[in-house]
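Incident log, structure service

09:12 report received: a user says their structure output differs between two submissions of the same chain.
09:20 pulled the input from the user's history:
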Amino acid sequence: MLEDARPAAESLRANRPTRSADENRDFVDLADPATENQLLPSLDDGITLLDVEGSRGVPILQSLVLDHLLIHDGLAFWVDANGHATTTTLARIAPSQRLLNRIQVARGFTAYQHYGAVCDLTTAVNQSIKTSTADIGAVGRGAPICDENTSPHTPALIVAPAIDAQYRADDTLCETHAETLQARALAKLSTYADGYDVPVLVTRSRRDEFTTAVATAADHHIECEQTRMGPRLLGEEFETLVYPVDDGAYYQTTFAYWRELLAARATRVGMEPTTPSSSTATRDGVGTGITAAGERASTTTDPLLDAWTATDTGGR
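09:34 re-ran on a clean worker, output below:
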């Protein structure tokens, strides 16, 4: 059973100054408003479960962490398992080396070490707050950031990848004790999420009955599917619709993106965008369209095939 987090959560709350760190301002100023939030979802307060299809998803996890730190003040406290906090990929992905200084990593190689590291987060966070607030000069140099709730003193993010790995693999624990210890670790993370008003990002090594408790404890869920163009992320309020290429351009691989784009363009030129009714769709098609000759014709999911088989436009 999960422990009651309420009493501890109240004791962990801290006042949040509304001053930002100098190291973030350059990145925020350089962000393109037109492409903001197109590629990576934002992490909300509470526990967010990231499930990556077909792999451990280390680069995806690290990208979400670094993206969050670019637009929020404070440190990221990372309780690692199974080598997710690899410095090689972190250094390659990070746009600035000084951004890596804001990631504090603790590693647990056994179930008890991992649980102990989770329990020690309170001490580490409180010590960080004490050290940060003691530097009065650093506090005075900050400038307001877009999110008034962010602070360079309180944590920006807590990360616990492969939350089940050590409890699953520890031969000294029976299944019942392993599930209990994992549940207590989840309860601690939930306490920190409530007490510090901070996102907690977790992953699991695989989906089965043992990790049902992880999904139950999560407030948010992000699915990651590996595609030929790159990772596609899907959450409650986010879906990857475009992928970046050279020179700031973007590719798209979903019909949803084109539908939104064409509807927006139609509205801009004074046309009312319409959605074909289900009655106009054929068994093998997606609806009807207007040809270059002004005639209505049924369309399939293959536009090249439509043009090739057209009878009045030189088609086959």
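09:41 both user submissions now match this output. Likely a transient worker issue. Closing.
09:42 reviewer note: The CA atoms of residues 52 and 260 lie 26 Å apart. The domain at 45-129+152-220 is CATH 3.40.50.300 (Rossmann fold).
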